[in-house]
Amino acid sequence: MLKVENLSFSYGENPVLKNVDFCVEDGEFVAVLGANGAGKSTLFKVICGLEKPQKGRVLLSGKPLGGYSPSELAKIRSALMQDSEFNFESSVLDFVLLGRYARGGFFASKEDIFIAKNALSAVGMSGFEGRVFTRLSGGERRRVELARALCQIGACGRAGTLLMLDEPNSNLDPKNSNLAMSAVKKFADAKTSVLAILHDVNLASQHADKIALLRDGEIFAFGEPKCVLTSENLKFAYGAENKIFEDGKNKYAVFLKE
Ligand SMILES: Nc1ncnc2c1ncn2[C@@H]1O[C@H](COP(=O)(O)OP(=O)(O)OP(=O)(O)O)[C@@H](O)[C@H]1O
User: Fold this and answer.
1) Sheet strands (E) in 70-225
2) What are the transmembrane regions (predicted)?
3) Whose alpha carbon is nearest atom 18 of ligand 1?
4) Residue 208 resides in a domain
5) Domain that holds residue 19
6) What is d(CA 163, CA 216) in angstroms, rounded to the nearest whole number?
7) How far is the C-alpha of 33 from the C-alpha of 140, rounded, in Å?
8) Which of 8, 142, 167, 181 is the right S-S partner for 207, CB 3.0 to 4.6 Å?
9) What is the CA radius of gyration of the chain?
């Protein structure tokens, strides 16, 4: 379980996160939504340990993240950042196998290769193993990056592991967005805790167990999509008029032109 306790963070004099407090249980998929500049990526970086909070702490399975060694952490926590800066001419398979590095260094076992190919298949990228990563389209690259993040956790999810995703759907078309989210949800179903920053409210509504709505660095609504996704909450989060529709299973939001 991921526990975020009372986090506050400022860039200089600019407070960006204010007493952020929530949990992601084992097997739960929590989506963080909010307007541009609300503090989502900063929250992501603080949870990943890339920025140090002025207040609060982050616990995984009851232990502060700082209490794990880097190699321990690499085996139980995997993060997909917003922007990849990977520019080597590596094959797609070698790129995904980087997710296994903490386990066997540069020598991939048969099991590692099986897990990497499985992860590629889960995101619809089977058959691309021998292609050069940097020569893929933006959406293909993003799916390969997601496969690397999944591969780092293992063949499937397990309790005590954490998958962190910052805009995993950037550059993905609607079909591949759904496929990617289904692959992520399978890890949650197998007891990994998943925290994903999403911009697509309807994708979050369909795939996430819970949604955290962030505004000006504060979580003002947290819970199941059907409770959190109200017209008032979305207006408050995004400052935009919207209409909510339901199909008996999920809620969907349409944002209206001003
Ligand atoms: N390195 C930085 N130094 C100073 N201010 C920053 C820095 N990074 C982000 N900020 C500011 O912190 C606030 C939150 O930024 P953050 O990137 O966390 O927002 P976000 O919710 O992820 O936005 P987006 O949806 O546009 O990606 C913004 O006002 C931003 O300008």
Assistant:
1) 77-80, 162-166, 193-197, 210-215, 218-223
2) none
3) 39
4) yes
5) 2-84+157-255
6) 24
7) 24
8) 181
9) 18
Model confidence over 113-163: pLDDT tens digits? 999 999 999 999 999 999 999 999 999 999 999 999 999 999 898 999 999
Torsion of CA 170, 196, 104, 128, to 10 degrees: -30
The answer to whether residues 42 and 201 touch, using CB atoms and an 8 Å cutoff, is: no
Summarised one tens digit per residue, pLDDT across range 178-215 is 999 999 999 999 999 999 999 999 999 999 999 999 99
User: 115 alpha carbon to ligand 1 midpoint, in Å?
Assistant: 35
149 assigned to some structural domain: no
Ligand 1, atom 13, residue with closest C-alpha: 37
Domain tally, the chain: 1
Residue 175: CATH number of its domain: 3.40.50.300
The pocket around ligand 1, CB under 6 angstroms, is made up of: 11, 14, 16, 34, 36-42
ipTM: 0.98
**Strand locations in 147-200 (E):** 162-166, 193-197
Residue nearest to atom 10 of ligand 1 (CA): 11
Which residue, by CA, sits nearest to atom 8 of ligand 1? 42
Distance 248 CA to ligand 1 centre (A): 36
* Look-up of token digits 């933006």: 138
Token duo for residue 105: 């260094």
C-alpha closest to that of 150 among 99, 89, 91: 99
